[in-house]
Specification:
Blueprint lengths: L1 H25 L25 E6 L9 E3 L5 E5 L7 E6 L4 E6 L9 E4 L5 E5 L11 E6 L2 E12 L15 E8 L2 E7 L6 E8 L3 E12 L4 E6 L5 E6 L2 E6 L3 H4 L5 E4 L6 E8 L2 E6 L3 E6 L1
Parallel strand pairs: 9-13
Antiparallel strand pairs: 1-20, 2-3, 3-4, 4-5, 6-7, 7-8, 8-9, 10-11, 11-12, 12-13, 14-15, 15-16, 16-17, 18-19, 19-20
């Protein structure tokens, strides 16, 4: 009888505890953490990156993969990534779409866009993930008449195999910039992730062998390039980081030791352009638009 009474008392106590816990939960009181369970730490976001300000989102752009200045101050051109429509999106400094320009070409893998001092745009259809493309082209056009497109076809002077061996796969390009009558191409080292090769082609339509200018020690995979208006600061963007090279000219900057700046938390950064010597705008594949101040 004592055993049965003791068991009944235990059951009653348990039922009472459960009822009390349910009452607290229904009243909005938080549950207690289980003993030994660690709470997750909040990850670093773009707001924590020094000198970086998020301006807005480009909701209409499918995976922004390049960024260039447009005609009016505070406006930009961008475009989608591989498989997207051959469309240029004109956006303002908050990411709001102002216009969509359909370019009458077969878009394969647009990866970059750059602009010359006359307002011409150069769209780099030079994405080459598998390092086996033989149809690389840069489209030259003026946004005032997108129906008139000129082609700068190219191949790399040092590529013999399509594709080359895995360790030699350094013929993908996601970064271009225009400077002094030439288009510069910066490769994305898919083989070893250590070197960005720099090639040049003339900015006029034609078929060219891109000349290898130099090789840069970049411990990352370059996704875009931007040059300040005075030609003294070169930025090579990568995923959630950038590399800054400085000198008295572009030629000197290409000989400088890259300074690495973390953009961890900003997303997959793919587009960059300067608005003045100290202000860089950056876009991410997720659609974010940022301003970085040097």
């Amino acid at each position: 009888m004592r055993t049965l009474s003791f068991a009944a008392a235990v059951v009653g106590l348990l039922l009472s505890s459960c009822s009390e816990a349910q009452t607290k939960e229904s009243a909005g009181e938080p549950k207690q953490e289980k003993s030994g369970k660690k709470k997750g730490k909040k990850g670093k976001g773009a707001a924590d990156i020094a000198n970086l300000t998020r301006l807005g989102s480009m909701n209409d752009v499918p995976e922004s993969s390049g960024l260039a200045l447009a005609e009016q101050a505070g406006t930009f051109y961008t475009h989608g990534d591989e498989g997207a429509r051959p469309t240029l999106y004109k956006v303002d400094a908050t990411g709001r779409t102002l216009a969509e320009l359909e370019v009458p070409v077969q878009g394969d893998d647009w990866e970059s866009i750059t602009r010359d001092t006359q307002g011409n745009l150069y769209i780099g259809d030079v994405g080459n993930n598998n390092n086996n493309r033989r149809d690389l082209v840069i489209y030259r056009l003026n946004p005032r008449n997108v129906q008139q497109v000129q082609e700068i076809k190219l191949k790399y002077s040092d590529q013999q195999d399509f594709p080359p061996a895995k360790q030699d796969q350094n013929f993908d390009c996601e970064a271009t910039l225009w400077h002094a009558g030439k288009v510069y191409l910066f490769t994305k080292d898919r083989g070893q992730g250590q070197t960005s090769k720099v090639y040049t082609v003339p900015d006029q339509p034609g078929t060219y062998t891109a000349q290898l200018l130099t090789k840069l020690a970049i411990p990352g995979e370059v996704t875009d390039a931007a040059l300040s208006p005075d030609g003294r600061r070169l930025v090579l963007l990568a995923r959630q980081e950038m590399f800054v090279l400085e000198g008295g000219s572009l030629a000197e900057a290409l000989k400088a030791t890259p300074r690495q700046i973390s953009l961890k938390g900003a997303g997959q950064t793919e587009g960059a352009t300067f608005t003045d010597n100290g202000t860089l705008y950056i876009s991410s594949e997720q659609g974010a638009l940022y301003k970085y101040t040097f």
